[in-house]
Design goal:
- By secondary structure, this protein is an alpha+beta fold.
- Helix content is 26%, strand content 33%.
- The chain has two domains: 31 residues; 80 residues, Sandwich (mini-chromosome maintenance (MCM) complex, domain 2), CATH 2.60.320.
- Strand 4 and strand 5 form a beta hairpin.
Amino acid sequence: MKKTSFWVILIAAVALLSAAALAWQHFSANADKLIANVYLDGECVRSIDLNKLTEPETFTVSGPVGENVITAEPGRICVSHADCPDQVCVNMGWRSDGKMPIVCLPNRLVIEIEDSAQDTENPIDGVVG
């Protein structure tokens, strides 16, 4: 093997390992974040850091059909009561990851677990910035 080939392979291996380490660091840092963002009619009305909760918290969100009672505990969240006729949101149970949101279509409510809290005071338009 030529000396230049050795250096090219060595540099490529170091670059590949560095990229893998950075990707692992990025994904492991975001994996610890459990932010539940509560949206009503597409607008974020509340953000809750589920990892920082020390005791259960219950609050009510009013929608077009009635009210949804949301219960958050350390690491998880659910809709514990709803005035909607089908009760799908209540039957979805507890959520502790971002794989599937909790949705109440009649009340236009969506609860998503995301990496970051939404700014409910000064929302930024995603197109304009």
